[in-house]
Each structure stands twice: as C-alpha cells, then as structure tokens.
Amino acid sequence: MSSLPRFGQMVVGPPGSGKSTYCKAMKEFLTTMGRKVEIINMDPANDELPYECKVNISDLITVSDVMESLTLGPNGGLMYCMEYIETNLDWLISAISKLSSDTYILIDCPGQVELYTHHKSVRNILDYMTHKLDYRLAAVHLVDSHYCTESSKFISVLLTSLSTMLQIEMPHINILSKVDLIEHYGKLDFNIDFYTDVLDLHQLIDTFEEQSGFMSKFKKLNEKIVEVVENYGLVTFIPLTVKVNRMLV
C-alpha cells in the first residue's frame, strides 16, 4: 500500500456513451497540463482500445474466453468476469501498485448497466479500493445526449443515473456526452439547461400527450419515476464534448 493516497476517476455508462473516448481525451488533456496519467481498462469485453493502457484486465480474463469455456451469453459472461475480478482482486491491485503513487488513474469500466444498478461486484471492488487502500476516486457517469430527444428515454436515463449513484456510493458526476452532435439527433422539447439542471421534470410528462401508442400508455408510471428522481434531488448533468478542452476542466 502506497504511503500517499491515489487519485482518479471511475468512468461508467451505457455502451456507446463514449467512455473510452473520454478516457483517451482526458489523459491527453491532463498530460498536457503536466500530470502523470494512466488508463486502466476494466472492461474484459473491450478488445479494441483507442488508447495505450498500463493495466489491462484482459490480461487476466476476457468475456470471449468465458463465453466459449462456460457457454454463457455476453451478459452472463461479463457478470462472471466481474465476479472473477472481485475474487482475484489482488492481481488488479498488484498491477496498479506498479504505477507511481502520484499517477492519476482513469478506470475505463464495462458498459453493462446492471453492473452499477444491481450487481454487487463492482461496488465491492470499489469499496476495497476506497476504504482499504485509500484510493480517492470519483465516479464519472457518461450518458449519450441523444436520449434528450425523447422524454421517455430521458426519464429512463434519470432513473438509471440515480440507481447508479445510490448503488456505488461514491462522489459522482453525471455527464451528457457528445453534445456537439445533439442537433443531429432531432429537435429538443426544451433547451439544454432543462436537461442538465433536472428541474420541473413534470414538464416532460406533458410531452407524452403528443405521443401516441405504446409510450402514452405508461404516462402514470413515468409520473411516479419522475417523483422519485425529484424527491432524491441528486441527479444533474454536465454537458460535454471531448473536442473542446475547456469542457474537460
């Protein structure tokens, strides 16, 4: 165990939200500021990394190997991998300990949402790092901004973000990624501040009147979900595009 605490970020979010791209851009940004930074790939299903990493969990276990040997599907295979990592946490800690104590770490995590809302292995791994080893980590939760184009999708994102915050119990930042592309996804019902500040969410429910068919049937359910999110008062978002350095500060 290092005599100094280790600082870093745990980067989570659904598949395609831009976690690996964020890690690459953040490392480049912090490096230009003179900070020692290394990326840790914690995704055993990520076999095409856009960055160089000093610690790669695929050296320990991969989803493809698990699926082949245990005849599991991709979701079951990933859950098995995370449980295996938890059981063999000494391998990961040993690999990280080889980095200098002043190295800022970016942990690129898998995209399976259940790992952060229901499953306990990731939380147990983080508990060990933060409480036993005194790692000072913050969770960075990325969500693709295209979910803002439909009220029902954004409400589901709010619930997922809240569940993740309550499950992993860490300092937490929610990010709307790829905001530079948001106009390509379609017209927003409100300005971007409405989605980042997460205030007066019942205005989202009013847009359900304009929707026909399947989603309009679940208006009351979404009303209750909105009430839960507002009662906790925890979820807000920061807009981000990795193409603008000032947004990475």
Please tell me about this protein's structure.
With 249 residues, the protein is an alpha/beta fold. The protein has eleven helices and seven strands. β5, α7 (151-168) and β6 form a beta-alpha-beta unit. α3 packs parallel to α6 (121-132) and α7 (151-168) packs across α11.
Summary, kept brief:
The chain is α/β, with parallel strands linked by helices and 249 residues long.
Topology:
Blueprint: E1 6-12, H1 19-32, E2 37-41, E3 55-56, H2 63-70, H3 74-87, H4 89-97, E4 104-108, H5 114-117, H6 121-132, E5 135-144, H7 151-168, E6 172-177, H8 182-185, H9 192-197, H10 202-206, H11 219-232, E7 238-239
Parallel strand pairs: 1-4, 1-5, 2-3, 2-4, 5-6, 6-7
- Oligomer status: single chain
Sheet with most strands: strand arrangement: 3-2-4-1-5-6-7
Overall 3D form: globular
Mean pLDDT comes to 92
Radius of gyration: 19 Å
DSSP strand tally = 7
- Strand content range: 5-15%
Q: What is the H/E string?
A: EHEEHHHEHHEHEHHHHE
Major beta sheet summary: 7 strands, parallel
Structure class: alpha/beta
Number of helical segments with 4 or more residues? 11
- Could you estimate the helical fraction of the residues in percent? 40-55%
Terminal-residue CA separation? 29 Å
Query: Low-confidence parts, pLDDT < 50 over ≥5 residues?
Result: none
Keywords:
11 helices, 249 residues, alpha/beta, seven-stranded parallel β-sheet, 15% strand
